Amino acid sequence: MIIAGESSGELYGSLLARTLRHKWADLHIIGVGGERMKEAGVELVSPISDAFGLIEAVSSLNKIKTAFNNSIDAIKKFRPGVLVLIDYPDFNLKVAKAAKKFGIKILYYVSPQVWAWRKSRVKKIAGLTDRMAVILPFEEKIYGNAGLTCEFVGHPILEEIEAVLEAEFGSIPTINPPSASPLPFIPPVGGGGVLSPTPELRALFKSDLGLDPDKPLLSLLPGSRPSELNRHLPLMTGVLRRFRSDPEINSQKNYQFCMPLAPNTDEKRYYSYFESLKREGAVMRKGETVKVLAASDLAVVASGTATLQTAFLEVPMVVVYKLSPMTYQLGKLVLNVRYISLVNILSDREVVTELIQKRANPVQIMRELKKIMFDENYRKHMLDSLRKIKEPFSGRRPSDRVAEIVMEMAGK
Question: CA angle, corner 220, sides to 216 and 221, nearest 5?
């Protein structure tokens, strides 16, 4: 059984499900997730709820309660050999407590952000789960110190990126020098990992998306949760208006714009926002985030997993985030981090600018975009830092390794 509570976790669950079914053909997988997990062969007992933050979660309480009851009923009925919990701690830890009573083996895959807040959950997770598989390098030590068997397995978004590149080109070159490479990539130093995209690669992906290969592309990533879309879509519209009317930009480059949407996005719900963005020239692409980022020259990104995708594809970015005022004030009281974006957290310094709450406005976002565009040293420093972020993840196949752990736990 695999439980994912939001869009990025559901992606990881779908990658794991496909790998498990490839290794273990007669495996029956049930779970909580979305369309991607369903397509990967998971029998869904409930859809994902996509709640985030205190105020946002209150509005989704009925969906969360239904998903929880369905999960417990499924555990009682099927008694899965292994329960895989993906992030989503407030929900998953309650499920773990119930599953433990039935003697079910539990693997926690993708740690909650215990390093940011509520560190007490480390002991709770250690007491409820049998093993831990983490996707950020520094998390391994946190759980190891708590006595839990824990392993850093790498990040699943690298697998997603590689899958898209392989689908586009048939294969990915390894460590050939650029002149010998059959594809438009620059190999990373030392070999392995996702290769650095060249202008030729970006042009190919622009064409594939129906965009002009000769024009630079600004991408806008508003997040996937309903609360994020409600706050960030109007902001992105304001940014586009300012960008298109800026004389300094338009006198030099004729930009085009694209907004990738998560596969689970309810387009009807946000129809008016999307229409406003389209009037400003934005093209929507559902379920094609990797392709859009591979084509991008610049990006405005809502803090979350997308910042790491953007970093791995070496796109200069400005990070934004807006919450309800109450959630933000509560967050300031409990958060124990200097940065909110994974790019800066992994670097332990400010590589990309973070604009939060009132600072996340079109004027300040435009100021940062123009700095990236017109200050060559600033842009180069950012790109060099983004390349360094990839190094600890190089050569790891998280879905393969987690599938092996699951099979070990199931005695297979």
Answer: 135
pTM score: 0.84
Domains of the chain (ranges, CATH numbers): 2-154+396-409 (3.40.50.2000), 171-393 (3.40.50.2000)
Q: Give me 314's structure tokens.
A: 């070496």
The b/e string for 297-325 (b: 16+ C-beta within 10 A; e otherwise) is bbbbbbbbbbbbbbbbbbbbbbbbbbbee
**103-120: per-residue pLDDT in tens?**
999 999 999 887 766 677
Neighbours of 279 (CB within 10 A): 11
In the block, residue with structure tokens 């997993």: 305
**Each residue's pLDDT tens digit, 18-69:** 999 999 989 999 999 988 999 999 999 998 755 444 344 555 788 888 999 9
Query: Whose CA is closest to 48, among 37, 58, 59?
Result: 37
Pairing of strands 82-86, 42-47: unpaired
Q: Which two tokens stand for residue 34?
A: 């979305």
Q: Give phi and psi for 142, each to the nearest 5.
A: -60, -45
Euclidean distance between CA atoms 366 and 240, whole angstroms? 9
The whole-angstrom separation of Cα 89 and Cα 266 is 24
- DSSP 3-state of 272: helix
